[in-house]
Amino acid sequence: MKNKIFIIVAFLMVAVSSCKKLSSLPSDAISTETLVNTTEGLTNALNGAYALFKDHIEFNGKVDQNNMYLRQFYHLTDFASDDIVCGQVTTDPLYYSFSLDHSPSQPNSRYYWYLSYKIITGVNTVIDAVEKSGKNDVATNQLLGECYFLRAFSHFNLVRLFGKPYSVAPNSPGVILRTNLTDPSKKARSTVKEVYDSVLADAEKAAGLMTRSRGVQYASQEAAWSLLARVNLYKEDNAKAIEYADKVINSGKFTLATKTAYPKLFANATSSSETIFCIAFTVVDDYGKFGSIASMIYSDGNSGWGEEYASSSLRAAMSAHPEDVRWSYIVPSKDAAGVVQKKNGIEMYYISKFSFQDNLPNLSSPIMFRIAEMYLIRAEAAAKTGAVGAALDDVDMIRKNRGLEAALYNKVLPAGSTALDVVLAEKRIEMAFEGHRSYDVFRNKRSLNKAYWGYHLTGLKETDVDLSRTPTGYPNLTVPYTSPRIIYYLPVDEVLSNPLAQQNP
C-alpha cells in the first residue's frame, strides 16, 4: 500500500509541475482522495502524463536538455530510415541509428525506455485509482479512456523499437507489459503477439470509454480508432485495419488539407483539419537549439545544428513532380549564387516539418495521428486484399490535395508496379519524417536501400563523396528485414536490474 501511495504522489508531483502548460486549472497540491473524487484532480494527474511526452525529465540523477520523449522517438525511428541522411560523424547517440552500431548502453534508447515506462506507470496509477472508486460518469470515463489510450500507444511504440515486426516473428520477444501496479519489478518480456493483443485490448477499451472531445492535444475516440487501424495493419489484419480507418474517415471530423493549406499544416497542427491527435507545444515549450526536434534537421543559420538532411534517396523518389507541395518541407540551404551548400560533401536539404509554429524555427506540435495516414492505411489494406481500384482511389485522394491533380492513377497501375508498391511509395513521401518509413519497409518484408552518400556509411571520408555515382563497398548499404539491427538492444539498466529480461541478439 505504501508503494502505491508513493507512486501516486510521485506522479501527481509531475502532474502539478507540468499541467500549467496544458490546463488552466489550479495546480495546488492534490491529495490521493482528490485524484479519484474530483474531475479536476484526475484531469491534472492525466495532464502530467501528456507532459511527459515533451518535458525534459530527470534520468540517472540529472536532467539532460537533449533528452525528451519525442526527440528520442524521431531519432530512433527516422534516423534509421532512408529518408534522412547524416552530414557528419558525431558522438551524439543519434548516430547509432544511422550507422546501425547499436549498444545496450546508448543514452537515447535508455532514456526512451525509462520514460515510456514512467508514462505507463503514471496512467496505471490513475486507472487503478479510478476503477477502485467505482466512478463511471461521462467525464471520468473520458479521462479513463485517455489513460488506456496512452498505455496502448506507449506499449506499441516500445514494441516497434525493441521487438521484431509482428509479420516477421510474432512469437519472438517483445517488451515487458506493465498493465497494473502489482506486477513484480523483475518480469520477463511478453511476446510480440502478446504485446499487440494487449495494445489492441487497451485501445478498444479506450474507444468505448471516450465519448467527449477535449481537443486534438488529448486522446479521443477517433485517436483510439486511428491507433487500432495502425496496429491492425501492422498485424496484417487488413479487414480490421479498413474497419477502423473507415470509422475515422467517416466520422466527418477531419479532412485532408488542400494543396494551399498543406504547407502550413504542421506549423498549425493544433488547428489543422488533418490532425487527429498531436502533442501540443506552446511558446513556453520552445527549447530552441537544445532539446528540440527541429534543431538537428533545420537551421536558419543559427537556430539549430542542422546536421541531418532529407536524403538524396527520398528526393529522387519525389523528383518526378516538382509541383508536389510536399517539397515545401524540404528546404535547400543555398549560397549567394543559389547553389545548394554541402556539409562534408553532403548536400544540405533541411527539413522543416517540426518548425515555424508561431514563426519560431524550433517549435511545433508533432502530429501522432492524422487523416492522411488513415487513407493510406485503408489503401495498403485494400491493396493486400486485391482491391486495387479502391487502393488507388485512396492514394489519389492524397495526390489531388498535394498538387498532383494531373498525375492521378485513376485506377490504373503503372507498368511494373503492384498496388502495394504504389501505396508504399506514396506513404513514403506523404509521411516522411513522421516516424513510419522503416516500419513500413520491414513489416512488409522488404529491404531498406541505403546506397546513397552520407555518414551512415562507416569509414566514409569527405574526399570519398562523389555525388555523380552510387557508393559501393560500404557495410549496411542494404538492410534486410531479417537483420537483427532493425531493432534496438534492451537498455543495459533493464537487463542488469531484471535478469528475466532477455536481451536482443
Automatic annotation (TrEMBL):
<dbReference type="Pfam" id="PF07980">
    <property type="entry name" value="SusD_RagB"/>
</dbReference>
<dbReference type="InterPro" id="IPR033985">
    <property type="entry name" value="SusD-like_N"/>
</dbReference>
<feature type="domain" description="RagB/SusD">
    <location>
        <begin position="347"/>
        <end position="505"/>
    </location>
</feature>
<comment type="similarity">
    <text>Belongs to the SusD family.</text>
</comment>
<dbReference type="InterPro" id="IPR012944">
    <property type="entry name" value="SusD_RagB_dom"/>
</dbReference>
<keyword id="KW-0472">Membrane</keyword>
<dbReference type="InterPro" id="IPR011990">
    <property type="entry name" value="TPR-like_helical_dom_sf"/>
</dbReference>
<protein>
    <submittedName>
        <fullName>RagB/SusD domain-containing protein</fullName>
    </submittedName>
</protein>
<keyword id="KW-0998">Cell outer membrane</keyword>
<keyword id="KW-0732">Signal</keyword>
<dbReference type="GO" id="GO:0009279">
    <property type="term" value="C:cell outer membrane"/>
</dbReference>
<feature type="domain" description="SusD-like N-terminal">
    <location>
        <begin position="36"/>
        <end position="233"/>
    </location>
</feature>
<dbReference type="Pfam" id="PF14322">
    <property type="entry name" value="SusD-like_3"/>
</dbReference>
